[in-house]
Amino acid sequence: xxxxxxxxxxxxxxxxxxxxxxxxxxxxxxxxxxxxxxxxxxxxxxxxxxxxxxxxxxxxxxxxxxxxxxxxxxxxxxxxxxxxxxxxxxxxxxxxxxxxxxxxxxxxxxxxxxxxxxxxxxxxxxxxxxxxxxxxxxxxxxxxxxxxxxxxxxxxxxxxxxxxxxxxxxxxxxxxxxxxxxxxxxxxxxxxxxxxxxxxxxxxxxxxxxxxxxxxxxxxxxxxxxxxxxxxxxxxxxxxxxxxxxxxxxxxxxxxxxxxxxxxxxxxxxxxxxxxxxxxxxxxxxxxxxxxxxxxxxxxxxxxxxxxxxxxxxxxxxxxxxxxxxxxxxxxxxxxxxxxxxxxxxxxxxxxxxxxxxxxxxxxxxxxxxxxxxxxxxxxxxxxxxxxxxxxxxxxxxxxxxxxxxxxxxxxxxxxxxxxxxxxxx
Amino acid sequence: xxxxxxxxxxxxxxxxxxxxxxxxxxxxxxxxxxxxxxxxxxxxxxxxxxxxxxxxxxxxxxxxxxxxxxxxxxxxxxxxxxxxxxxxxxxxxxxxxxxxxxxxxxxxxxxxxxxxxxxxxxxxxxxxxxxxxxxxxxxxxxxxxxxxxxxxxxxxxxxxxxxxxxxxxxxxxxxxxxxxxxxxx
Lengths: 426, 185
Ligand code: HEM
Ligand code: FES
Prior knowledge:
The complex is a heterodimer. Chain A has helices at residues 9-17, 20-29, 43-62, 72-81, 86-114, 122-144, 149-160, 169-177, 184-215, 234-259, 289-297, 301-321, 333-353, 360-386, 396-404; strands at 32-34, 231-233. In chain A, helix 3 (43-62) packs antiparallel against helix 5, helix 5 crosses helix 10 and helix 12 runs parallel beside helix 14. The radius of gyration of chain A is 24 Å and the shape is globular. Chain A is mostly helical. Chain B has three helices and nine strands; from the N terminus they run H-H-E-E-E-H-E-E-E-E-E-E. Bound molecules: protoporphyrin IX containing FE and FE2/S2 (inorganic) cluster.
């Protein structure tokens, strides 16, 4: 493959020895992408950018942070007050973690809606689920570092989940703590692991993209690319489209960083950790709330932990639970409705997770938990059998050109006016 | 794709074991053992270190504690509750039939002296510190402790009565050194 750059001798010289120019050309420039991708396809690259933002701001923070129970809280305040621009780095990092989750959750629900987990993209999907697990690990570990009250008690409650494992749980959790409770050895190793995990994340992201570029992107119609007429080159079409999304995302992030920096946090985390006093109402960060609700919906310690882990692990087998041959919800009128109910169910779980386990929250939490699993274990397998799907278009370019009467391939999808479709611009 | 092994590599006819098979197996087994041997110390380093293990006992002066009062002391980084129980509290704890308990233990087995209840103040669910030691704290439906995190209620013997916690509050090892001094750990 030759790029326009290949007219330079130096480029030829390098490329002959290390084909980075050809490689870039193959994967980022000429890379054939379906011509009908909508804005929901922005979120993968946005997630990648957020990972980079977290790593850059994190490395800066680590230059000023001290992972010791006597200094951690103060060094975080030192970053906030004394280090030049330190407040901005910390607010970017803390709110960046939230932005990362927003983007990744949208990315996952995009997958649900358009059936992106189906053959031949199962391994691509698995890598995604693994990324979600690693992200949850990273942000949990990071949240412990400022050593405020919420940091400490989140660390205590979450690590104690391990003690639910029969027989070895207790030994395992003391091994993880390096002591008899969450204490200095714990903070120290959490810092070490918090530094490590994002780089493991990079490796898994690489495999995720490798699988993607091998079988190529799904698209809003969910049908395979059949001829070059169905595709357009990644650059400039999708590089520019991704940049638009990037601008919007950074705008939203900036609103939080500069105007609402503590909106998503808990004010009690500005009180230094006290191992002898549990705050009256402990809640995880918003991105963990649905799982927390599932944990608490089961009135048994081990059962709750199993349900919580299963709620994410079930995504690994999703490609086989959804038995429908049709990928995109556009052609699955019943699934489309269950998609929205499922999304609402996740919001209900999040809302329950933010509230104490009392009164009607208990019942609502249990119903929402049962529905969550029923969606995967009952509704999806049955829909594949009984749903009457709509006829699929012949090919991507025919569908696009018929609806638009032109070649505006990168614009809004054909049915963006339908309102019920997430295909419309965000 | 194109680089195929030289012909001579496919030495043996199919199905027959050769010295090469044996060597591959032996080398594989040795490598696996070496990997485990290396992993072991790496994993062990994360266990509680000697200095952490050394900090294992605390002495407490209990002469100032009034009947009905509770104090919290720190032991191994965790709170220990010391409650000087009233007669009613003792009676209440002893009146409960063991069948009513999800983790059956008699009150007698949980104390050395009926008046003094000494417990590790860590909820056996997910490790929060139950409320009930300070004046004005909620003590739950059974007059002992109440864990605000996920709503576990403990009775006046520190036994779990209602809520997600699986076990009673743990009783640490302790010893009355004399009338006023108790050593925990
Ligand atoms: C997957 C990417 C990452 C995520 C999701 C993440 C998440 C978090 C979160 C949620 C916090 C707590 C923020 C707060 O309330 O203060 C945090 C703190 C921290 N992170 Fe990260 N992080 C990531 C990558 C990194 C990297 C690569 C480093 C480099 C060493 C790093 C270094 C730190 C430090 C030093 C702190 C403590 C200072 C502070 O609390 O602001 N992080 N991280
Ligand atoms: S930690 Fe006490 S009830 Fe969950």
